[in-house]
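Board work, copied verbatim: Oxidoreductase molybdopterin-binding domain-containing protein
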Amino acid sequence: MDPAQEELFIVRQDSPLNAEPPTSALAEFPITPEQLVYHRNHSDVPAHDGTLVATTFTIDDLERRFPKARVEAVLQCAGLRRAEMGATGREVKGVPWGAGVVANCYWGGVRLRDVLLEVFPGLEREANGANRTDEHAHVCFTARGAKCEDDAYYGASIPLSKALDPEGDVLVAWEMNDDDIPPVHGGPLRLVVPGYLGARWVKWLDGIYLSNRESPNYYQARDYKVLPEEVEDKKQAAPWWDKVPSMTSMPLNSVIASVTKVEDDGIPAGHLRLRVKGYALPALGVPVDEVQISGLDVDAHRVWEDARITYQGGRWAWTLWEGEVVARARKGKIIVRSRALSRTGEAQPESGKWNLRGVAWNGWSVGEYEVDA
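↓ predict structure ↓
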């Protein structure tokens, strides 16, 4: 990290580097600047010569042979808000992430679909036929230069149906926010899989192959899965890894990034007005329709106020929002909650589901404001 990031970021692990910015800074930018993009790594940054093996393509080859594509999409770690899950009283395994491991960026490159259909003529016809089903056909990705903690290299896979979906927007990317992707964020080539957790957005991408099963790599087969709630340790987890499906999408979510006091002489005595700001995340590309906030200490099930949407990009992007609540100005902590609702009517649940790996936590977000006197 550069010196400015070192002062701002919360470092969760030095080597490999895992660090996140404060949410209060994130929520100020519709498009996350490179300086605020979180660091999630299972290895140190490897050397990469910019070559992708499918047959063999360099970045210049990709630029010359395929139409350029640009997608706005939010990248989020599966362990987003893991520290909150751990605070429920049951231990979770993994980096104790807060809510800063998320970044909404523009990504530029070429569509994976176009590359696959050139390298494997007839693939789409075969995928839609009887010889290859969506359930079992996968596209696997490797970053063999990334020497990882739990495997010889980093690998992952996505269903072939996602890769070939004309509206899936899966990219082989070399640009982030219209500039080269920095090596610390996966450059020169990384996969972009809108709507999927960041573990599938393979950084330092150097290989692609087709398979009739998911990638056997540790980070696909033995990690990033929502294990049953009764599984509480590594030994109990062992028989479940082959039974539980790999994560793909992340759930509908909202996060309170900041709670600040607003000077207002017009409110009743003994009360104060608070401004609440945050972000919301879509599930499977279904846009967030509204965000609601509650400043009540009790009865938050029934009384919600609509927040104002301040930014909403495309179907894969995050939503920024802000709103105000009036609360009693008594000494101590004032609790504020948020929840997101999707365009199809899904509501963010009051509580997430605990699991050993601490992934996919999406209970109502809770913010606090401290009243001194």
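Residues 253-371 form a domain with the Immunoglobulin-like fold (CATH 2.60.40.650).
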